[in-house]
Amino acid sequence: MAPVLELADVSVRRGTATLLDDVSWTVREGERWVVIGPNGAGKTTMLQIASTQIHPSSGVATVLEEVLGAVDVFELRHRIGYTSAAVAERIPRGERVLDAVLTASYGMTGRWREEYEEFDEAQAMLLLRLMGVDGLAGRTFGTLSEGERKRVLIARALMTDPELLLLDEPAAGLDLGGREDLVSNLGKLARDPEAPVLVLVSHHVEEIPPGFTHVLMLRDGKVTAKGPIEETLTAQNLTITFQMPLILEVRDGRYAARRAPR
Ligand SMILES: Nc1ncnc2c1ncn2[C@@H]1O[C@H](COP(=O)(O)OP(=O)(O)OP(=O)(O)O)[C@@H](O)[C@H]1O
Ligand SMILES: [Mg+2]
Predict the structure, then answer these.
(1) pTM of the predicted model, to two decimals?
(2) For atom 29 of ligand 1, which residue has the closest CA?
(3) For ligand 1, what atom is nearest to the CA of residue 42?
(4) Which ligand is nearest to the CA of 40?
């Protein structure tokens, strides 16, 4: 089967800066990937490529069997769900939560005279329920807490029934309970065979939901490790990626990391 996402020697350069440096990465049907790495490693840049927001400066990026640069990306974007801080900022504060999810069907933010089918409304409610926030459907987006917004954004990203779901730091800013709720929601999604291919960007191994199958580690725009999670998510690879001696603990499908004692 053709890969869902394939980067072949992809570099992204801006001025004299190299944001991604010869990154090669293949994501296949059914896989659930975590992308982990320190601040400034290039994680968001990589998701911007995967979500067709930017093109490589060199190398080839193939998303859902279409080569970026050779295809109308607006068609492709309907097949990709994407959440990030930038997406959250584009949602008007006064928009009703249900509409913030519904408008995703049209690849836009802000409800403005479009006619939505009843089916779409029912689907949006279903997704809000899946993320445990259906009670907030009538509220305005601006009144939600950080964690509630994050979950609404994931429901929104699922609205087009995407083949690829890209989540850029969905747990950032959440308290412990909020993070654990999100990890559990994402764990359910990861184990659902009907769910899209998942790529989750995170800084913290504690945020990796059970059921994720692969990990890619990034530092300074370069891949430091990639592969199946059991063999790739190791203290040694984390130590290289974060350039700090780290200890990794695994229990019940969850991970925890801390600095190794001197
Ligand atoms: N237009 C630009 N010109 C120069 N450097 C840039 C530009 N855009 C991004 N960068 C730099 O590229 C690097 C990678 O950025 P990116 O946002 O992909 O990192 P990240 O891994 O997502 O980091 P974080 O964990 O902080 O979100 C950063 O050092 C950033 O400052
Ligand atoms: Mg980022």
Answers:
(1) 0.93
(2) 40
(3) 18
(4) 1
